[in-house]
Amino acid sequence: MSATAAALPVPAVLPAPRIRGVGLCSGWGRGAAAIPSDARAAAAGRPLVGLGPADPAALGFSAERMRRATRECLWALASVQAMLEDVGAGRQAIAGDGTALVFVSAAVYGASNRAFIERSGGGTHFAYTAPAVIPAEVAIEFRLTGPSALFIGGPPATLHGIWHAASLLADGVCERALVVAVETFAECGELYERGRRLAGAPLVEAAACAWLEPGPGTLSLALGAARGPRRSAIAARLGETFACEPLAAIACWRAEGAREPLVLEGRWRREAARLAWLAAPAEGALPGGPAWRGAAEGELCGGPAWRGAAEGELRGNEVG
Amino acid sequence: MRQADRIAIAAAGVVTPIGQDLDAFWSGLLTGVDGISTIEAFPVADLRVGRGGEIKKLTRVKDWAGVPPCRATRLLVSAAEDLATQAGLRPLPFAAERVAVVVGTALGGVAEGERALGGDRRRRRLADALYDGPAHNLARWLGARGPAMTVSTACASGATAIGVAADLLRRGLADAVIAGGYDPLCRFVMRGFDALRSLTRERVRPFDRRRSGLLLGEAGALVLLRRDADAGPRRLGTLLGHATVGDGAHISAPHPDGCGLERAIRLALGQAGLPPEAIDFVSAHGTGTALNDRIETAVLKRVLGARAHAVPVNSIKSTLGHTMGAAATLEAVMCLLAGRHGQIPPTRYLEEPDPDCDLDYVPGAPRAARPAVSLSTSLGFGGQNAALVLESAP
């Protein structure tokens, strides 16, 4: 076994996916327009801003089929429906095995797990404790039968999820990919207060979905260690939404005209990740800062100022 | 679809109910050690079934200093200790920033959540209750400072993790990845499967006409993955292809036609650049439930065609129990060891074949055969279907 790592000929890059649409539902309301300019002020002392109960009929889903579905499942469905409305497409546009489904969450399983632990639940209730059942409900409702993946973690996991989707697109395994993230907190609210110190921004429940398809340019992923607290622009506006943060940032970026190059940052526990859409083709040279060279270059957040409206990070050490 | 670069599986480490290192695991599979026993770690008297593949005491690691008292983490660290011994990973022979951890789990740290909700107010309990906690604990124990990722495609997680890890290497995001799966037995999961009435009071009998359900087990299983060119000739084998596919049919049952599993197998073969005729051996998911075994058999017949009855297929879940997040990794390792040692472990307790399950399931005793290319299949809640195409080292 080699004692030294082989030098990489190029940084981690892929053909970039085009973001065709984004759906966002948050405790503040629907879409980027509902996000306040200052989450802390808007929360007015509330530690948690919830999505509230989900009414299948109001969301356009069959109440009979959804009679056992959990709140988090329903909000996942709602985010996909919101994305379709953003794109102006019907369900048939995503149905079938050409659509990959990537699901990401740090903590959405908490509600169902707690309910099953504290109350005597039956087999159906137990099935809903599996994180994989949330994307399954999305797949059943929208008839998605393509590749799938499910990442657990905060914003870096979502950036990996987008990267994974781009990788599936680049390999020709699918024609489009949906990246869905959901975080609900209300059922475990006091546990979050017990387990972590709120860092100024309230916890905000959210569900988001992005439709990706092959596009021009290059996607670059850089990984490294998160060091020191740093307030994120999107978290300051939105509040803490864990895995939903990067997708919410994309929604804001699009709502603000998508004028700047899209650069997403995320932090969780001790990790940081940065995902950047570049205009250059995949084989070309990349900007020369050390942060672009991958994890071996170390800490990401001490680099140059990163452009784009969609920067986001989490004060992750306070979660772990 | 593009053929994927080959990824070397340099070494493996395991902790299982039949042995707490790779040699004991392999020898237990061949000699018929039964990993199933009455569960002792938590109360089971109120459950219909109180047996499973429980590891009574983790003996591999002598010094737990600095390792959280979280069962999931300790299973991972035990498997990692075995892997580290075989592959010389302590200290890491790679730049720590270029070493990633990718693990799959169905349950994460839910046992810690049970304890926290049961009145244990230590803050550590809540941190470890997050499903990605054990992966970060493992990375810390290894000294790995690359990404520490958790995937959760239910009981297919151990296969998905290997696929995601391979992609990190192919795309240059890491130079070495410790990948695999884990899940502990805990009251939460025993209660759940008890409520689903999936657990059998008898033996687990995959593909047998008397099969009446599964039993759960606990395990940790890890492999060291490297790019083919970086690994050198000393290896367990090579990952040729992987796919995980959702079938969009039901929250807890597989698609009745097995179309998701079939798509996963065909995608994995496509990534490997191999036709179905190349498959020498199949490690089936083989849970011993009525539906799974019948569907899997039908899918294998469609994929393997005229050769279906000539390709040996086994299930090791009757020996270990269904080890959930660890199962697919353990089964992948078993495939590679079969090629190395020229023996295919049997499907234990298969005695009266189901007429609907009429393939060669290696009943009774180990089979002398040296499969070069193996297919490992896994299914999980949420319509998750995963396939790995593996090549044993010559």
Q: What proportion strand of chain A?
A: 15-25%
Share of residues in helices of chain B: 25-40%
Give Rg of chain A in angstroms.
Answer: 19 Å
**Count of helical stretches of chain B:** 12
Order of helices and strands of chain B: EHEEHEHHHEHEHEHEHEHEHHEEEE
Shape of chain A: globular
- What string gives the helices and strands of chain A in order? EEHEHHEHHHEHEHEEHHEE
General shape of chain B? globular
Quaternary state reads heterodimer
Helices and strands, with pairings:
The complex is a heterodimer of chains A (320) and B (394).
Chain A (H helix, E strand, L loop, with lengths): L12 E14 L2 E2 L8 H5 L4 E2 L6 H4 L11 H17 L11 E7 L4 H9 L4 H5 L5 H10 L5 E5 L2 H16 L5 E8 L5 H7 L7 E2 L1 E20 L7 H6 L6 H11 L7 E6 L2 E8 L42
Parallel strand pairs in A: 3-7, 4-5, 4-6
Antiparallel strand pairs in A: 1-2, 1-8, 6-8, 8-10, 9-10
Helix pairs in contact in A: 3-6
Chain B lengths: L6 E9 L6 H10 L5 E2 L12 E2 L18 H17 L11 E6 L5 H8 L5 H7 L3 H10 L5 E4 L5 H14 L5 E8 L3 H10 L22 E9 H4 L5 E10 L12 H14 L8 E3 L6 H15 L8 E2 L2 H4 L6 H15 L1 E2 L22 E2 L4 E8 L3 E9 L2
Helix pairs in contact in B: 2-5, 3-4, 6-12, 9-10
